Amino acid sequence: MATSSYKRHLAKTITWRIVGTLDTIVLSWIITGNPLTGLKIGAAEVITKMLLYYLHERVWFNIGIKESRKRHIYKTFTWRAIGTLDTILLSWFISGNPLTGLQIGVAEVITKMILYYFHERTWYRINFGLDRRRERKSWKKTS
């Protein structure tokens, strides 16, 4: 496997974490009414979610589903299941209230799935870390 694919997965991890953390902070703040709680939950997620997202990307890199829209939808659902469970547990731990954790987790199911789908579609159009796809495009132009 090319080293550049690892760079791509790290770049996707970082960009998604920025989007996801901002979403979590805002939702947590709205649900708890406390901006500090939102910041604490968002900060905790930076660590757990980056690790989980990177592992998710590595697994999906080796899965044989090639058609992009189906692949992105499947990835959206698998990532959301992992991400929501992580958010529920962290929110419960930080707020001390299991209902708060559940409310934040359920709210972000909707916002994060929409945001994640568009994140995937955007990265699908970017060649960074995909030497093979870039080479194929170059080959087609010269034929």
From TrEMBL:
Domain spans labelled DUF2061: 10-60, 73-123
InterPro entries found in the cross-reference section: DUF2061_membrane
A Pfam family of this chain: DUF2061
Acetylation in keyword set: no
Entry annotated with the keyword Lipid biosynthesis: no
Keywords: Membrane, Transmembrane, Transmembrane helix
Transmembrane segments: 14-31, 37-56, 77-94, 100-118
Stated name of the protein: DUF2061 domain-containing protein
Organism, scientific name: Muriicola marianensis
